[in-house]
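Q: Mind making up any chain with structure tokens?
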Amino acid sequence: MIRNRKAHPWHGITPLQEEKEGVVRAFIEMVPTDTVKYEVDKTSGYLCLDRPQKFSNIVPSLYGFIPQTLCGPKMAELTNTLMARYNVEGDGDPLDICVLTEKDVTHGDIIVKARPIGGIRLLDHYQADDKIIAVLTHDALYGDMKDISELPKEISRRLIHYFTTYKDIPGENTKRMEFVGLYGADVAWDVINRSLEDYQDYLKENE
């Protein structure tokens, strides 16, 4: 008897099925209608409830991660170089991705094909926490975009506002997330490739 098993979203999904076309596969954890934060459990691969949103922030895009990536030393090196620092580390999670689409996607726990057009460089205390910005392939509104320079500035600002405030705690004045800068498609692919290498290093270290 053959038993089909669901692939682990982090480890079991091929991230660059269409690499020549500049397309990645992204696992979506959250959609704009979610009022709580969902996150994949690293051990089981099931989508779990991480926390309710403290404020009325709504994620402004599909949000998830690129499989078989890790925000580790090679990825964090870019932030260290840019900021002339030496103590920034990767956050140890898969590389986050925001996927823009005009369509109403009603739930997460799905795989989509997306074209990276840039990214947001963020710092969570001393940890690099980049967010790749991508567009859903063949999307009527966003699908033809190749670089973040083509994205309306209000969309970029909306993404930056969300990710610099979504971890804030009501009643506290300390901001956790620091915005470092935006970057285009070329840098986004450098970040992605470094995170793919960090993931492979992680596997070797844990054999």
The mean pLDDT is 91. The first strand starts at residue 24 and ends at 30. The longest helix spans residues 185-205.
